[in-house]
Design brief:
Elements (H helix, E strand, L loop, with lengths): L2 H25 L21 E3 L3 E6 L10 E9 L10 E4 L9 E2 L2 H9 L2 E5 L23 H22 L11 E6 L1 H12 L7 E4 L6 E3 L1 H32 L1 H7 L8 H17 L3 H13 L4 H16 L9 H4 L8 H14 E3 L15 H12 L7 H8 L9 E6 L18 E4 L8 H4 L18 H22 L6 H6 L3
Parallel strand pairs: 4-6, 4-7, 7-8, 8-11, 9-10, 11-12
Antiparallel strand pairs: 1-5, 2-3, 3-6
Length: 503
């Protein structure tokens, strides 16, 4: 750990010690009351993050080699404003396949207040500024996997707890704060897998929209887009796809110009780009932005291509902020470490570990049938070279897929989310699964509210078509966290009652 990081941790605990002393003098005894895939895309307003102050930790490059002792600097964040010194819980919120710019101010901040928790977040290896190498060649990517990432989390968790004990002058190494892990999407899967593989290191996990099932041909993705769209919008999207395919055959360049995507010389890349643009509207809780103008154009006999192009340019490339180059295989082959390296990195994980090939189903598809298995396999080969193939069966054998044999894991999904079919949908007493059902409930609704992009401060649910549906699931989450934290500390009463009844 660097000197600056050490000083920051020490200074924060000095501040909290003073706060604790002042509060105790005022109240006699008790605890101080706390003050009042792409999910990483946050607005730049001051309330989007709890903190953006980066700290650094020396991480092991290869956790599975007894001979390789190389390390790299891994970025992390901590937020201590709500932390109840000295024995409050530590909430570890996971970053995933993107640059981690801080700890988002979503519903986790509400939970941290409720439980007096510190919040820490570790950037995923290779992403953002946590790159072990200066070049992202295929050879250098061999340490990029969920297995290595889980060990990163375990090592970091142990190191952070030991550092905390030192700051609190704890003499026994057996004394630990209770930990709870949170994640959305791929980080949601990591959250579930962390509890599965390291149950002694966390009291439980929240696995929001957690894609725990690796899938080779993920046809359910497109099918859910159609279901979420409804009959009228689905028909309009299917007709648009037909018009796109005809346009590619007759006037390729003019069509790509219409959508602002002339960079995409490979037609498969272009068709994938257009399919994703539609899916994102349902995935992140903005269905009407897509469907209303498209259905109206179809009813009025207007140009569907023009209507869809307007949506793509104004919403997907505009307010949502996606770059066309994300879909360009020439860009994906670039090995320089840049802010855009996440595109190549996630495709490497797709092409080696989890699959998720978003192919067109054999019947009634929305996306073009040209977005098929061959397109994905050719992409993997073109971008990363020979011998790159998603070991989906191996991944599911290792983690269990939707038959994950874990405990104390909460699974949540939004009804409109195309990714929910790769999550655990069957509930059990020790691994409850909740579906939040509403018109705009998508990816990570339980933590992000509606719409899911841009992030709502504290995960505000007021703009969900059924706020009560979100609140009910959130209440279940609170109750499970409360129970599992109390069981972790082997006390016979509610964790919140145990620690907050003095107020």
């Amino acid at each position: 750990m660097g000197t600056a990081a050490t000083m920051k941790l020490e200074s924060k605990f000095v501040a909290f010690s003073l706060l604790l002393l002042v509060t105790l003098s005022n109240f006699g005894h008790g605890f101080p009351a706390p003050p009042s895939m792409f999910l990483h895309r946050l607005s730049k307003s001051s309330d989007s993050y709890l903190t953006t102050t980066a700290l650094w930790f020396n991480q092991t490059l290869d956790h599975f080699s007894p001979y390789d002792h190389r390390q790299f600097e891994q970025r992390y964040y901590e937020f201590l404003d709500y932390f109840r010194v000295p024995d409050g819980p530590i909430f570890l919120t996971l970053c995933g396949e993107y640059t981690c710019n801080g700890i988002p101010n979503d519903y986790l901040s509400v939970l941290a207040k409720k439980f007096g928790a510190a919040v820490v977040s570790l950037e995923h290896r290779y992403y953002g500024k946590s790159s072990p190498f200066k070049s992202m060649t295929t050879e250098n990517l061999r340490y990029l996997s969920s297995k290595q990432a889980l060990f990163d989390l375990a090592v970091f968790r142990q190191w952070y707890q030991e550092s905390l004990n030192l700051k609190l002058n704890r003499r026994s190494v057996e004394i630990e704060n209770p930990w709870f892990v949170f994640g959305v999407s791929y980080p949601g899967a990591l959250s579930a897998w962390f509890r599965l593989k390291f149950p002694h290191l966390t009291c439980g996990s929240l696995a929001s929209s957690a894609v725990v099932l690796a899938v080779y041909n993920y046809t359910e993705f497109d099918q859910q887009v159609g279901e979420s769209a409804g009959p009228e919008c689905k028909a309009a999207l299917q007709e648009t796809t037909q018009l796109v395919e005809q346009g590619l055959a007759s006037n390729n360049k003019e069509l790509k110009t219409l959508f602002g995507a002339t960079k995409l010389s490979i037609d498969g890349d272009f068709l994938f780009f257009l399919a994703d643009a539609a899916a994102i509207a349902f995935q992140y809780g903005n269905p009407d932005v897509l469907c209303t103008p498209l259905v109206e154009a179809k009813k009025a006999g207007q140009d569907l291509l023009a209507a869809y192009a307007k949506f793509v340019k104004e919403y997907y490339l505009g307010s949502f902020g996606v770059s066309v180059q994300t879909y360009d295989q020439k860009h994906l082959k670039e090995t320089a470490v840049t802010e855009d390296s996440a595109d190549r990195l996630w495709w490497f994980q797709v092409c080696t570990e989890v699959g998720f090939f978003q192919v067109a189903p054999p019947n009634d598809s929305i996306r073009s049938s040209k977005v098929d298995t061959r397109y994905h396999l050719d992409l993997c080969k073109n971008v990363f070279g020979e011998g790159i193939y998603p070991h989906v069966d191996e991944t599911n054998i290792y983690y269990g897929g939707t038959k994950i044999a874990g405990s104390k894991i909460i699974f949540t999904n939004g009804s409109q989310d195309p990714w929910r079919h790769a999550s655990k949908k069957i509930s059990s007493p020790d691994m409850p699964s909740y579906l939040i059902t509403c018109h705009n409930c998508g990816h990570g609704t339980d933590l992000r509210g509606c719409p899911q992009d841009p992030v709502n401060p504290e995960g505000d649910e007021q703009h969900c078509s059924s706020p009560d549906a979100v609140r009910k699931v959130r209440q279940q989450i609170v109750e499970h966290i409360d129970l599992w934290l109390s069981e972790c500390q082997k006390s016979g009463r509610s964790y919140m009652e145990e620690h907050f009844w003095h107020r």
